Amino acid sequence: MVKNYFLKMFAGIAFLGLLAACNTTSDPTESIPDPDPGIPPQKVLTKISVNNVSREEYMTAPVTGILQQAVFKDESATNVSAYYTGTVTYTDKNITKVKFVSSATASLAYEFNIIPDGTGKKIYNATCTGTGTTPALSHVSDYTFSYDVATDKLTKILEKRKAGGISAYNRFIEYAFVYTGNEVFQVVCTKGILDINGAPEQGTATVTKYNFQNYDGKKSPFSTLPSTYFIMQGLIDPINFYRLSPSNPTSMYIQTPSSSTNTAQSYSYDNQGYPVIEKNQNLTYSYKNL
Predict the structure, then answer these.
(1) Which positions ≥6 away from 146 have C-beta within 8 Å?
(2) In which band, very low, low, confident or very high, does the pLDDT at 17 lie, cut at 50, 70 and 90?
(3) What pTM value is reported for the model?
């Protein structure tokens, strides 16, 4: 009799335990670890907009993300709706030509021909034909590139220019790069004339300093595109040289011979650390996954 009582009691306890396990109010997913999100998809910059109006667009190959064409505002044009189109040509996966043509007929058209070094990672030299509406507004330029032996960083670009339809080199522009870590901190742009021996006359030259400061340590949207393209864009307007940096400056200070301007920048980022909004200038960055 006692034996049967204990058997019934044990069976009842087991049954109640089974019911409790089946009717728990806890979320069953709480005990399951989150699935591995895997490697984030590689992305490439496609557009920069200002107040929902396109300012820059980058057309890339669907799978590889190789840059084929870019469109950006022509800041030199009086027509606010004028844009440059940059077309990129490759040889053995290296950029060997970039041609910029503006929708504004008064703006210069630029054709850069580029010779990469043996590794394909640096530029050995380059030439440019700038075509204006008249020969006096046109020029032909030759560029030499200097690099730091230890770091391979670009340290100087020297442009010797045949300007105004003259057959001999008569002007120069020198771009000297200063770094903080891997970031381009400053570009000193020196413009002047060449002496009778073809050497830059530094004493009579004018100097403009482009300072890119207080980098955020996040990922630059321009790092998704080839640096060679942005070097060519920087030779048109040196303000673009900060795009060679892996991160984003939060202030830019430009010192010309007659004035100076300072621009502050503040960003919001996506979950990979790329900017999606620049708040001060109302910029929006768009990407596509590869």
Answers:
(1) 154, 155, 156, 157, 158
(2) very low
(3) 0.86
